[in-house]
User: What shape does this take?
Amino acid sequence: EAAVTQSPRNKVAVTGGKVTLSCNQTNNHNNMYWYRQDTGHGLRLIHYSYGAGSTEKGDIPDGYKASRPSQENFSLILELATPSQTSVYFCASGDEQTEVFFGKGTRLTVV
Amino acid sequence: QQQVRQSPQSLTVWEGETAILNCSYEDSTFDYFPWYWQFPRESPALLIAIRPVSNKKEDGRFTIFFNKREKKLSLHITDSQPGDSATYFCAASASSGSWQLIFGSGTQLTVMP
Assistant: This one.
């Protein structure tokens, strides 16, 4: 079974603060993704990566940065967190047009 | 503009009925269409997927019907069970270009016993 581990699982951040969400996968998948999930919007793609050193913008990249320092790790960075970024964030990994495996999610609250 | 659209937003059926969930897409380069399901407080997981070389994909009680000309898909769940109650997401990606996996906004299915 593919394993995607996210940390932290829950986070409360203050407006204007920096937040880093981490993701680790142990399946040697090339592609990794960060989505946010909000009621009524489904899963919206923030950033994705083809492999170590690459990051690409998804549909809603504004306010977010991403970093892929290795095949296994993919981070999402909120440099200046805002209340509108309160959401559930999912990391996922997979290879091209095959099953994508999701982590358990991070619930972020920005106050 | 949403690239993948789903309808209805929510659907309630009785146990034993067939549930039909709809999906449409904009980008004609999309050539892989997975459906994911998500139970409350869990992560999405792959249910079934189709590639346009076929216009139908079946897996037990779950069947995808695909219409390339109209850029539409539908997921049919026959003999619906209360355990099928979940949110269903249609997704799409293209083998040419960026490999992004784009999701629709989901259909929340409730199967009443």
User: Anything to note?
Assistant: The interface with chain A takes residues 6, 9, 31-32, 34, 43-46, 49, 51, 89, 93, 95, 98-106 of chain B (CB under 8 Å).
